[in-house]
Write a structure and sequence with these properties.
binds zinc ion; globular; two-stranded antiparallel ribbon; 38% helix; Aminopeptidase; alpha/beta
């Protein structure tokens, strides 16, 4: 084999591998600019079903963007990447958006926000910065047992205003890195039941038919954390709020990401399809907070 045919066959081999998805871009290196490009291309490819929207401007001056998919009266939400280092969850959010844009859920408008914490995402850092301080965005919401906020970050205030303004009914929030799909309460209390445990169990079972991830109450399966978005959404509004902890790592390679997408996107879609069409009415927290439990918040999920 001469030098020319050697180079040619090497190039052909790489092109076949790339085509088969064996070689692809490193998901840990994706920037927010690329995520925005993806959203705009998705909207362009599906003009009848999908438009981009702006959530608003964050502390860093960046604009959080998302896509609005479908035209139905029931409005649901998929929000990802409160934690900037959890890029695997961003990839799953992008895949959900693509799935829904291709085939919107009848009767629904689903908003997908792949990245809430933009500076964290670009730096692959869990926290977001405002006024020179680092804040954990998913401890920055008001809650009945306390918070590290509330709303020291504009991003979390923007999302809180959005779910209120749009009347969001069901919500999936995406994180890595523990294979579990869980429901409220996730706060520092021993009183973890809501009047809707049965409905929530149904939703997480629908969501995990392919993944077989662990399901249950958030505090029991993961650990107690105050000031999270997922508890806030249910506590404040009665939103059917489900937390997806995806995969086994904060540093998934492309093959891991592909698997997370394969086993989670159908379940997320099914969960949204079958979620109640109205918010829960009895969503106050009536239990007792236990501050000692809050000390076990590891801030790593
Ligand atoms: Zn997280």
């Amino acid at each position: 084999m001469n030098r020319f045919t050697l180079i040619l066959s090497a190039a052909l081999f790489m092109s076949v591998q790339a085509h088969a998805g064996i070689i692809s871009s490193d998901p840990s290196q994706t920037t927010y600019a690329e995520v925005k490009t993806f959203l705009h291309e998705l909207a362009r490819a599906h003009p009848g079903t999908t438009t981009t929207f702006e959530l608003g401007v964050t502390d860093s001056g960046d604009t959080v963007e998302g896509v609005k998919i479908g035209n139905g009266p029931v409005k649901n939400l998929v929000v990802s990447t409160h934690h900037g280092n959890e890029y695997g969850s961003t990839e799953v959010a992008r895949a959900v958006a693509a799935n829904l844009a291709e085939n919107p859920i009848p009767g629904q408008t689903v908003y997908v926000i792949p990245v809430l914490n933009i500076t964290g995402y670009n730096a692959k850092l869990r926290e977001e910065v405002s006024d020179g301080s680092y804040h954990d965005p998913n401890r920055d919401y008001p809650g009945p047992c306390g918070t590290e906020g509330p709303h020291k970050l504009k991003s979390t205030a923007l999302l809180a205003a959005f779910v209120d303004r749009e009347g969001i009914v069901a919500s999936a929030t995406l994180h890595t890195f523990y294979p579990a799909v869980v429901y409220p309460w996730g706060l520092a209390s021993h009183d973890l039941s809501t009047p809707y445990d049965d409905q929530f169990k149904q939703l997480v079972n629908l969501a995990t038919q392919e993944s077989h991830y662990q399901v249950g109450n958030s505090t029991e399966v993961i650990y107690a954390a105050n000031g999270t978005y997922e508890d806030y959404a249910f506590w404040k509004h009665g939103i059917w709020s489900i937390l997806f902890e995806l995969g086994n790592s904060h540093n998934p390679v492309q093959a891991d990401v592909d698997e997370m997408i394969r086993v989670n996107v159908p379940g997320m879609r099914r969960m949204l399809e079958q979620a109640p069409k109205e918010r829960a009415t009895n969503h106050a927290f009536s239990g007792k907070c236990d501050g000692r439990l809050g000390r076990f918040d590891r801030h790593d999920e």
